[in-house]
Amino acid sequence: MNTDPAPAPRRYAKGEARRTAILEAALDVFATAGYRNGGLREVAAKAGLTHAGVRHYFPTKLDLLHAVLGWRDEQAIRQMSSLDGPVGVLRQWVEAARYNQNAPRMVELQVALAAEATSADHPLHDYLRERYEFAVGFLRGTFTALAARGELADGVEPESAARGLIALTDGVQTQWLLDREHVDMVELVRSAIQRLVTVEI
Question: What is the distance between the alpha carbons of residues 145 and 197, in angstroms, rounded to a whole number?
Answer without folding.
Answer: 11
